[in-house]
Amino acid sequence: MKKTTTLAGIAFAALGLTGCANQAKHKPVQDTLAVSVMDLRNGGDKSNHQIVYDGTLEADKTIELSFQVSGTILNFPARTGDHIKKGQLVATIDETVYRNQYNAQLAQVRLAKENFIRINEVFKKGSVAEIKMLEAKSNFEQLNAAARATYQNIAHARLYSPQNGYVGEKKAEAGAVAVPGQSVLQLLDTRTLKVIVAVPENEVNQYKAGTHASVKIDALGTQSLKGKVTQVGVLALNGSANYSVTIAIDNTDGKLKPGMLCKVTFEKPAQNATSTADSVKVTVPVQSVQIDEKGNRFVYILNNQNKAIRKNVVVGQIYSNGVSILSGLSGNEHVITSGYQKLADQSPVTVIN
User: Fold this and answer.
1) Which CATH code, of 2.40.420.20, 2.40.30.10, 3.30.930.10, 3.30.2010.30, is assigned to 33-50+280-351?
2) How many whole angstroms separate alpha carbon 135 and alpha carbon 52?
């Protein structure tokens, strides 16, 4: 009986060892997740080591054309987008009233002139006092000046272009009543365009007039244009913490149009320029920065063992090409830019890009 118990114990022990071996054999292995990464050493492209601003093209000069006299518009052939040359007739208004006034005044001028000539001849003979001659002369000159002024109203019934340009907006049509000083047409001088960029207050002081900039127009693809800063705003835009920086670019071929969107990068600031932006080492895609339940922001980077490592970061300004990282990254990492949703610290990954 004692021998039987021993054999049973051995059998149970053997089963136990087999169970442990099976558990060790079937221990769950953590899944390897597919991710995409961005090499900060190259930045994917150089733009990740530069601040990229959004900009909008505007005409270098905008002229509001208006009549100097009132009247019904008779002819207004210009259309939005038309090119107008300097001195070209743009529109006309009904000059009938001014023409009639001028003709009536001309008749008075002729009568006053004849009266002055007669009195002057009599004055020369000593038959009339000098004051009578002077009164006749003054009346003639006043009526003549008034007639010339009325003739200017006739001239102003025609609206001419003061320079070459494109019609940006047509604000009236034939049949409408023109009001002195009220714009009927917007003329745009597009030989040179200006790019308007909104720059945060902590960065605007590092840009001065003459700073070179590279401008990429979305509508022209990857073509890059060169420009210079011509003006740095001193008033905040619409009560925000941004200031406008104006860049001038040539438009000799006429391909650029006001209202086009663009991306702007400035040349590296001078060494003595101080700004919060100076501490920006790199920018990363906005979506790659996550936030935990405690409000800490972090990204995942790839280490040499193909594992995802969580790195807490301090973010700065959001730009067109991503969000700036003020601290937490040195600029030599591989940041995971997609597939990070299911990651945890030390998760094994495989790179698909």
Assistant:
1) 2.40.420.20
2) 75
